[in-house]
Amino acid sequence: MNIKTMIHSPPKVRAATCEKHGAFEAKCHLSDIWTKCPHCAQDERQAAEALEQARKREERLREWQARIGQSGIPERFHERTLGTFVADNDAQRYALAFSKAYADTFDQVLKTGRSAMFIGKPGTGKTHLAAGIGLQIMREQRRSVLFTTVMRAVRRVKDSWSRDNPENEGKAIAAMVFPDLLILDEVGVQFGSEFEKNILFDVLNERYEKRRPVLLLSNLHKDDVTAHLGERIIDRLREDGGKLIPFTWDSHRGK
Questions:
Q1: What is the pLDDT of residue 192?
Q2: What's CA 136's distance to the chain center, in Å?
Q3: Theoretical Cys-Cys bridge with 147: which of 73, 86, 90, 215, CB 3.0 to 4.6 Å?
Q4: Which residues of the chain have pLDDT under 70?
């Protein structure tokens, strides 16, 4: 059969009906092959795109797990979800509401790279809420999370200088830039030297450029946090709606 006789130019047109979307105009460009409902076709494309995005996310998560292993969230906090945080006063309720909204809208958080700082007294639930955010986005959105202290982050880069370490400095920094969410605990425990500030700046600046958010936890006052991290880092954490959440109540430990 001559292919030219099978091609319709202009295409044939006829009225058709979709059980789901109602009437539409079907077209035939080749032989007796008619177009389907355009709304159904769009739904199929969107479903296929969502499936492909989910597949890529699964691959990315497996890659993350292969490179880094566990999220680093301390075992003590594996059951500390947002639902188990007890809020008895307005300040606690505000911190919990922020954490829930942050986790629930994490897709939007990723679009801007919006970060947050949990700052206040020891034992007030900063790690609980940060871990709860991490656990929720890993479980419900299959996002990757890395929980580490500032001291471990700096030590990881230092250790990469060893000849016996297969991870070089670039890979050490990339491993902390890779996850969707980085939780940095114990800010202020380190010495606050220019060397440490430069390492942290390399990590946090690259995350800033890639719009990957950071949750920063510290028992220090905001001014002391700035002194330890440097104004450049704090400025980046403030951008795109970055929040400082104060934890001003007494410690829960021992109660």
A1: 61
A2: 11
A3: 73
A4: 1-4, 63-70, 189-192, 252-255
Handedness of CA 120, 126, 129, 133 (dihedral sign): positive
- First and final CA of the chain: distance in angstroms? 86
Q: Which two tokens stand for residue 57?
A: 């996310």
> For 185, left (φ over 0), alpha (ψ -120 to 50), or beta?
beta
Sheet holding 116-120, edge to edge: 145-149, 181-185, 214-218, 116-120, 243-247
Task: Spell out the SS3 assignment of the chain.
Answer: CCHHHHEEEEEEEEEEEECCCEEEEEEEEECCEECCCHHHHHHHHHHHHHHHHHHHHHHHHHHHHHHHCCCCCCHHHCCCCHHHCCCCCHHHHHHHHHHHHHHHCHHHHHHHCCCEEEEECCCCCHHHHHHHHHHHHHHHHCCCEEEEEHHHHHHHHHHCCCCCCCCCHHHHHHHHHCCCEEEEECCCCCCCCHHHHHHHHHHHHHHHHCCCCEEEEECCCHHHHHHHHCHHHHHHHHHHHCEEEEECCCCCCCC
Kindly state the tokens that stand for 227.
């002194």
The rounded distance, in Å, linking the Cα atoms of 193 and 54 is 42
The pLDDT of residue 69 is 47
CA distance 50 to 120: 41
Question: Taking CA 146 as the corner, what is the angle to CA 145 and CA 151, rounded to the nearest 5 degrees?
Answer: 160
